[in-house]
Prior knowledge:
CATH superfamily of the largest domain: P-loop containing nucleotide triphosphate hydrolases
Oligomer: single chain
Mean pLDDT: 87
Strand content: 5-15%
Largest sheet: 5 strands, parallel
CATH class of the largest domain: Alpha Beta
Strand order of the largest sheet: 4-5-6-3-7
Number of domains: 2
Bound molecules: zinc ion
Amino acid sequence: MTRAEHVRALLAEYAQQRALDEREQQARLDAAVARVPEIGQLRQESADLAFGAMRGILGETDAARRQAMAQEMKARGRAINARIRRLLVEAGMPADALETRYRCPVCKDTGYVGDAPARFCDCFEQRLRLRQHEDGSMAGLGEQNFERFNAAVAPEEGGQREQLVKARSLCERYADSFPDTDFRNLVLTGEGGLGKTFLLNCVFERVTSRGFTAVRITAFRMFEAMRQQHMGNDEKYDGFSALIGVPLLLIDDLGTEPMMRNITLEYLFTLLNERIAAKRHTVVATNLTAAQLKERYGERVASRLLDRSLCAAVLFRGKDLRRL
Ligand SMILES: [Zn+2]
């Protein structure tokens, strides 16, 4: 099978999964309404409210009034949802019993993430790789893995090649021993073009091919997840929680994300802190030095990133391999 055929087959599988998600959600809803009929009435009220408000908003020509109406609709919708959650809990069900449960909360089982141009979600890429692997045709994927890693591209002078060989063996041991690694976290640090991202991708590839779940994300996309969570426009959005919960999180290019007041630092701290508390593994690649990390994120975040009892730091030095 070609990659395109695998993609088509996998998209069909994702469509089935979404249908299943919806059926299960409907079944939970039916069960909840059977136990607490008021929930059914509230759901109807919520739908009527949205429909009525939508008609009113469309008929309104004044932009400020339209916005006010939309705000009010949202507030009333939230109040109804809060009431439903209370009723669920009172009846001994979880507050989120009526929410759709996705196999992948990041893409909500669509396989895609981001606005146009959307790209495949990591879960999709992972499944795609597995399919192709099973199919015995990994060719043409341009995959970055330990098998393809070639330290000979680095010059010998200044010990750059030797250092890269060491970095590779440390990363490979980490990936092979996951989750029983010598150090729980890895920080790959040094200037651009020295092989950090390549090795981060190698770790991801090895750990996922061993059957573990991992998420690989650029700091910029991680920031988007934080921002979206912070705005709270989409109540069902929990891409950020997914980052906290995944067994192995690999963050590439830390330091390139926007620094937004109340978001970047707070969320990054929460992410690192909760992952450490839950003993989950994190790999970070960054162009920043330890001192620069402290300066950008402050002591609180930097100390969690660089905690010597938890983390092995691998320093990359030398000539940019992309320019040789
Ligand atoms: Zn996904």
